């Protein structure tokens, strides 16, 4: 079986997952401050599935933009420094108070955000009044003086000047960040339709892997892949169920699948090479998942296809390309990555992250391709697309971090860039401009 290029495998992954874009049901997200902070994971990165109309106007009433005096502009039309106008001070209007109507010749002390009283049409800031402070409730003087006219509407926030009731508040496809959640709360919206997250079953495999914190026997290692891919999938907008297979027996992996709940996508890590006990290949190749080499380093061994869903009648009629909607309901798409941690994470970055972010409706699904000069020379196998970890220096040059090895996870953790050395590139001199992805977001 011939090896694929990176672009060919990217296209195959996108084709496999294309049916997930169609007919995905929305779900209702209930909004309240208490829910948002008691279950924050449910609210991060959510995207509207439909337009939301404003149930009320914002602001819901004319209100003051300043601390000052609510007045009738006509009362101050003749005010000058030589001919000041004095108005009678009425009761103070605080934010949250209704206030009383304002008669001719009156000025009402008003706080920022308080409703403009009936009859008033402008606000004069307190520092432009005489005295430039609010009178005490028991002050003997009950007048305030003004030395300049004011235009109607000055420092008044009109009803609906932000959004009017019935107008489109937020459009379908909007990512719900702090401002969007805030405007929903500000208009009293308590529930919105959002895209249902893609449900991923993640199975890291290997007889040698153990949970961090366990005592390791000789030859055993801690399972970092469940953490690496689990977090990467969550960051891409997925709901993730993690079920490690600490066995090289295909029957054990198939037993995990048989117990799986509702799942849209199966992602496996490890067990895809040509060794004697490759559990993912042994379990899923007979069901139709295709395993082959991709011309990249690290991350050459890859698997892709569909299997019959547990309990379905689809059996092993799996395909590595797209599926009709009816077939998609009975089959489960599978993406299989190699087991070395750097290989797994780079495979995710190259093949799965952009598709999942598009599915989730998240912005910038593709890493931006940039160029910078190498700070040092590098060698790359000409027959493979090598992805090296690097750091962009303050002077704009790229320092490579660690070597090309797929086990150098600590070096990856220090990196801020993935440097691309495509097929056909061998020796690269210092100062040569190369492509890279920024990965420090």
Helix share of residues?
A: 10-25%
Which CATH C-level class of the largest domain is it? Alpha Beta
Number of strands: 27
Q: Identify the overall geometry.
A: elongated
Q: Which oligomeric form is depicted?
A: single chain
What's the total helix number?
Answer: 9
Task: Tell me the count of domains.
Answer: 4
User: Whole-number average pLDDT?
Assistant: 92
Strand order of the largest sheet: 15-12-16-20-19-17
CATH superfamily of the largest domain: MoaB/Mog-like domain
Distance between the termini: 37 Å
Helix/strand/pairing category: alpha+beta
Strand residue percentage: 25-35%
Major beta-sheet overview:
6 strands, mixed
The radius of gyration is 32 Å
- The CATH architecture term of the largest domain is 3-Layer(aba) Sandwich
Low-pLDDT residue intervals, each spanning 5 or more residues: 313-327
> Could you say what the CATH topology of the largest domain is called?
Molybdenum Cofactor Biosythetic Enzyme, Chain A
Summarize the structure in short.
This protein has nine helices and 27 strands. The protein has helices spanning 6-17, 33-38, 178-186, 225-235, 250-258, 279-284, 325-330, 341-360, 409-414; strands at 26-30, 52-53, 63-64, 68-71, 85-89, 106-110, 122-125, 143-146, 156-157, 168-170, 191-195, 198-204, 209-210, 221-222, 238-242, 265-269, 290-293, 296-297, 301-308, 331-337, 369-373, 378-379, 385-392, 398-400, 417-421, 427-428, 433-438.
